[in-house]
Amino acid sequence: MESVQATKQRFGIIGNDPKLNRAIEKAIQVAPTDISVLVTGESGVGKESVPKIIHSLSHRKHGKYIAVNCGAIPEGTIDSELFGHEKGAFTGATATRNGYFEVADGGTIFLDEVGELPLTTQVRLLRVLENGEFIKVGSSKVQKTDVRIVAATNVNMFEAIKKEKFREDLYYRLSTVEILLPPLRDRKEDIHLLFRKFASDFATKYKMPTIRLEDAAILLLEKYHWSGNIRQLRNIAEQVSVLEQNRTITAITLRGYLPDIGSNLPAVISSDKKDSDFSNEREILYKVLFDMKNDLNDLKKLTMELMQSGNSKEVQKENEGLIRKIYREEEEQPIHFEKQSETPSTEVLQITSPVIPQKEEDKYHFAEEIEEEETLSLHDKELELIKKSLERHRGKRKAAAEELGISERTLYRKIKQYDL
User: Do residues 264 and 221 lie in contact, with contact meaning Cβ atoms separated by under 8 Å?
Assistant: First the structure.
């Protein structure tokens, strides 16, 4: 049996990661058999190398090896590509065509992106795996084939099965042995080795000196996420080799070739900014509360004056102005008056506002209690003002609302409330 190291040298596989070595070891072990293999891993990790290893170390190595990208073939023609078709089977079928399973008889077929196969094609493939039989499109004749199938996918197969996009029975037939290739970000010690290999290849290809990375650039290379894996690393190495005049690459230079590098690092939020924003919001809340308290004090003062001076015109005018102010505020932020308690001589009114959390031992209070005599209640003064305004304007609500300094909608609600 060929060793792992010899196999890596033979197929140009770079790296010493234990997970990578285990994947190659499994490929070497299953190669002499005819069992089906499913290679899994992210896009760009080099899954296409495994079926080549399996085919070259098997007894089918002298037979044909055909690689088929299932995701690149349109759904309407995939059956014809894999199993062939008869002349006249569909529009454009001007001649009989042999499919890949017929051409590769005695050899190996690599089905890349097998998770993209349509469900109807999956049924046909399952039959080939179970008894080696297939039928051409447009034919009724059953044909036999002796083909070793190695499949690969970057799709989460269990999720695809759960969503009914892939047949569960086909999955278990394909994955008799499953070989997982690790992503590049899990092979940190191999990243620089691969980069050096690619840089050397491109230097030879473009006839220029080989680029070299500084230590900081190597560290940056190893910390990058590499969502595109080896394919992305090769692309970066080629770009840097061709575009950079200076053959010693710094971390700053390399950073310009790594897309979205900021998204791979944790976000840092300035604590000063956070504290500042909180402080500003707190100041605004305090200002609103103090303004409310001042308004309540004015209302309390007015009530005391009414109790002392009776129903004088000066107090009535001041009362009218305050009511207008209250109703103007009500249009933006309603203030609710609730009867808190009642005795034979007095009643207590509580003005409530939206609930705001209290801090520092209830330092700020959001309710004020106002005591006033029944005969001089704000309710009666309001009713009296509305009646006089309506009488003065002969029942015209719009003119009365303008005089009172409130909206016509609010006046209509008050008329309905007081049953005027």
Answer: no
d(CA 213, CA 192): 9
Residue type at position 278: F
Beta-bridge mates of residue 151: 38, 111
Q: What is the C-alpha separation between 328 and 365, in angstroms, rounded?
A: 23
In degrees, rounded to 5, the angle at the alpha carbon of residue 112 between the alpha carbons of residues 7 and 47 is 30
Distance CA 280, CA 258 (A): 39
Structure tokens that stand for 43 in this block: 């896009």
For the stretch 163-194, pLDDT in tens is 999 999 999 999 999 999 999 999 999 999 99
Cβ–Cβ under 8 Å, residues 138 and 92: no
Residues 220 and 254: beta-carbon distance below 8 Å: yes
User: Is there a contact between 38 and 175 (Cβ–Cβ < 8 Å)?
Assistant: yes
In a 13 Å sphere around the CA of 245, the CA atoms on its Cβ side amount to 0
What tokens appear for 361 in the block?
């031992």
Among candidate residues 191, 169, 142, 148, the one with its CA nearest the CA of residue 17: 191
d(CA 391, CA 327): 20
pLDDT at 148: 96
**Backbone φ, ψ for residue 178 (5° rounding):** -110, 130
d(CA 103, CA 236): 38
Tens digit of each residue's pLDDT (9 = 90 or more) over 73-99: 998 899 999 999 999 888 888 899 999
> What region does 80 belong to: left with phi over 0, alpha with psi -120 to 50, or beta?
alpha
Instruction: Give the integer Cα–Cα distance in Å for 406 and 420.
Output: 17
pLDDT of residue 407: 82
What's the CA angle centered on 418, arms 342 and 339, to 5 degrees? 20
For 6-69, list the strands marked E by DSSP.
Answer: 37-40, 65-69
Residues of the chain with pLDDT under 50: 262-274, 276, 330-375
Nearest to 108 by CA among 143, 69, 149: 149
- Backbone phi, then psi, for 377, in 5-degree steps? -75, 155
Residues β-bridged to residue 233 = none
Measured in degrees and rounded to the nearest 5, phi and psi for residue 11 equal -105, 10
Q: Which helix (H) or strand (E) element contains residue 212? A: strand 212-213
Return the closest-CA partner of residue 151 out of 130, 177, 123, 169: 177
In the chain, pLDDT over 70 holds for what percent of residues?
75
